[in-house]
Amino acid sequence: MSEDTFMGVPRSKIPWCPTIDYEKCDYCMECDEFCPHGVFERREGEEKRLVVAHPENCVVFCKACGKTCDPDALAFPDKKETTELIKRLREDGKDGG
Amino acid sequence: MAKMVDNRPRENPADIVVLPCSGLDKEAGSASRELALLLSEKGAYVVCPVLYQRSPKRYEKKLAGVRLVIIDGCKTGCASKLAAERGLKIAKKTTVTEAAKTRGVKAGKKPRLGDALRNLLPALAEEILTIEPPKAPVAVGKPGAFGGPITCREFNVDKFVFRVPESGYFFNENDCWARVEGTRARVGVSDYVQQSASDMIFFEPPEIGTEVSIFDEVGSLETTKTALDIISPVSGKVVAVNREVVEAPELINQDPYERGWTAEIELTDFEGDRELLMDSPAYFDYLKQKAEREHKELYGG
Amino acid sequence: MEMEVRPTRVGVISCSGEAEPEGTIARNAVRLVMEKYKPGLVVSLCLPLYLAGVGGERDFAKKAPVIAVDGCEKSCARLATEKYSGEVESWLDVRDLLKQWGVTDKLSRSHPGKLEGELTDRVAKEIVKLVDRLVEEGKVEVESR
Amino acid sequence: MDNKKVYIIPCSGIGKATASVGRDATYKVIEDKRPETSDTLCLSLLTMGDEETVEKVQGGKVITIEGCAKDCARKNVEASGGSPDISHRVHDYLKEHRDLKPESVLDIGSEGRKLVKIIADDIAEEIDELTHESGSCDRGGGCD
Predict the structure, then answer these.
(1) Residue C95 lies in a domain
(2) Is B262 contained in some domain?
């Protein structure tokens, strides 16, 4: 199966996904209910009842779930850095043929 | 404490009306109330959000033709939403949790206002009072400058028909487009976005004057199904927003590529941006694959 | 040589039927098949859109096999399909089915309760049988994941 | 006489929860709020040219409720020679009540039901006005 790409770069090389701050998360699950891409997964009976199980499903540059988070427990990578990284990886891709 | 001399132009506080959040469930709510009171002491007029919700007529006259400052406690944005529901034009918006965060202070969960946050409020009030005075409306280029008729190519996925302009548009992989004329671009969302997100009910435009980099948010949309950010395909300064779409967001559903544009941007580095964008034919191919794949996922096929 | 491309979806179209309880059952049964029993295989067609000629519903129904599900003998869904897209593969009349099943209770169009729910499920399973038959007959190709 | 009734015709789509809201609002009006002065018709029957249904629409007052901006109910009524006196769009109501998003097509949920009530209240009032207008015309007054 061909690997998913974003702007020509393998998606797995782009570290874009939300990070949950468990100090703040109150497990309201709004983000999970909101996200149509199945990024989060609930874990009944575990200490961390919500995890970022499928970071590769997260749409690069999308922060929409963050807006549903009242306790502000979701953080995202820096957009500029991510853009720079993508640019670099694209260049590398070209060089490597 | 030493006071800084501030020579920035000041708005006459009497022209400022403040609509704050009055949240009582966490510290940011108390801070926004306190901030509103500070502004009131400096001459601004404060609208009570609870009373305004209950009887908007009371404030009708007070709100006409003034500069409206919104203070949201947190990102839930109740005060912003209230303003939007009543069709109020916002001159400036401050979100306490965000403003505090950029100053290294974390708003707490308990509603009582703590010293760290309280100490920030005078600076925030000063910042609000130095908003630039209203400018003349921004010229939106020559009429018809973006108005040339376009033709679209289309493809089907089952009963869905998706359209992509034949040429002249640039897209990012977040399905947002830019149509460039000279040094400006209009931006918007693609037909695919409007169909998969469903009927638009709300468009929150970016503030005019905002500097955006490629992939920054440049406004947001709410539909009957979901909410989404418009991810800018270009870098530059927002010089106009589509007021027609603010009034009638369904224009995005009806005509996503022309009348449904959302913002106009004075470009700063289009040559650089362009390297990261697809032209119309490339986006057509990209979208075709994506629509077929996502459709299968959505319907579990 | 050109290969014949077989359709990969079945279109199911229900009458709008808002004035009759059988219409409500027809609509909800189609929705149930699409959401629960045959997700991915069945595409529900929106009759009002189809009739208004908006969107790709008519073209889709020309290419894919269509099952019409009507609330009563007036068979609006079947007739509409025949008018704009061609013959339907199969057709169900909910009122007739209920008669066959001996259902004589008064049903609600607006507040479907337990009985209406059960009947909706039964009608959905009838639609599923028709879908399965289309697959068996090779009129629709089931894609492997 | 039946022609004194106001016919409420929802778009009746099955693809969107907003269409379900429109249909439920219709039922709320014709069954609970104004059973004497209002009724609904099958949009499909109307569009397929069923004589009895077409007559009702051409002779009576009509309110349409749209589930989306494609306005199928109004378009289909107009195609059948009718002309809606009033057209509503569910999403216009959602603009005013953004917290009342319906959940799904088969179950609009408690928020959706609140929205139904708001729409039904409006329509009930409109029906009173529409039936009052025609009533006063019959009496030959107030309708110039």
Answers:
(1) yes
(2) yes
Q: What is the tally of structural domains in chain C?
A: 1
Q: Which domains does chain A have, with CATH numbers?
A: 5-95 (3.30.70)
The answer, yes or no, to whether B and C have at least 3 beta-carbon pairs within 8 Å is yes
**Alpha helices (H) in chain B, listed in sequence order:** 27-41, 49-54, 78-85, 96-102, 115-129, 191-197, 243-247, 250-254, 270-274, 280-299
Residues B119, B243, single domain; the answer is no
B134, part of any domain:
no
B235-252 pLDDT per residue, tens: 999 999 999 999 899 999
Query: Nearest CA to CA, how far is D131 from chain B (Å)?
Result: 31
**With contacts defined as CB-CB under 8 Å, which chain B residues touch C59?**
156, 159, 161
* List of chain C residues whose C-beta atoms are within 8 Å of the C-beta of residue D40: 18-19
Listed residue (A49, A47, A77) closest to A63, CA to CA: A77
Strands C66-70 and D6-10: unpaired
The length of chain A is 97
Chains A and C touch (3+ CB pairs under 8 A): no
Q: What is the pLDDT of residue D141?
A: 37
Please indicate, yes or no, if residue C99 is contained in any of the structural domains: yes
What's the pLDDT tens digit per position in C23-55?
999 999 999 999 999 998 999 998 888 888 887
| Chain D contact set for B199 (CB, 8 A) | 16, 18, 68-69, 91
D44, C54: Cβ pair inside 8 Å? no
* Domain count of the fold of chain B: 2
- Identity of the residue numbered B15: D
User: Is C143 a member of any domain?
Assistant: no
Q: Give D17's contacts in chain B (Cβ within 8 Å).
A: 224
CB of D102 within 8 Å of a chain B CB? The answer is yes
Domains located in chain D, CATH noted: 2-138 (3.40.50)
Contact partners, residue D7, CB within 8 Å, separation at least 6: D38, D39, D40, D41, D56, D57, D60, D61, D62, D63
Residue range(s) defining the domain that contains residue C40? 10-136
Residue with tokens 């309280």: B118
For residue B61, what are the domain limits? 13-129
- What does the pLDDT look like over B100-155, one tens digit per residue? 888 888 888 888 999 999 999 999 998 888 776 544 334 444 444 676 778 999 99
